[in-house]
Model the fold of this input.
Amino acid sequence: MNKTSAIGTRKESSLHRSLKFRYSGGGQTEVLIGDYVCDAKTSKGEIIEVQTGSLGPLKKKAKFLTQTGKLNIIHPIINQKQIELYDVSGQLLHRRKSPKKGNVWDLFNALIHAPELPLHKNLNIELALIDVVEKRIDDGAGSWRRKGVSINDRFLGAWHNSIILKDKRDYYQFIPFEENECFTARNLAEKVGIATTLAQKTLYVLKKMGLIERIGKLGNAYEYMKNPLRKIKAGVCHE
Done:
């Protein structure tokens, strides 16, 4: 492994590595493009970046890479997580399924610090719907929230499906309202079954993308309407 590859893989999880090789399609991995080390480059020249957390750190990198070619950002959505707890000797203590389940709306948790990222030309965001296995070690060195248990690694458990978002038009599927219908974050949360805080993040991102417009307030809640853009007087929904 050369120096560049070592830098790119030093803290790489098994999950990240599995997705990187899956999407490389037999192409190169740990590719230096300009000043950036990219996860992979396919035989067709498509640049692959696997991002398991926030997409915020990719803002500058994506701006540069999309000027050199097509960039496909792979963002895993964890449908089911199985947790395996080991002692320091490597003995499996127990195995359980996490009660938390992810869904495609988790994308907006990742986009909250990069809301205009999907507007770049030559950029796709692909949601990989997967199950993972998380290996934890009861070594006393982990977070107090986990009572000292450390997260050692994460592995790809099962592959379910993927959703490709190519341009801003694909994000209209996250606005389940009619063109002239007013809605709030609570309306969105109730309609699609997500937390109100996640609905607020979703609407923030969609507003930054220019897909919705804030038109006024209903009580303490902001109201929105799906674009095409036009100026709407506050309270028009209730006249």
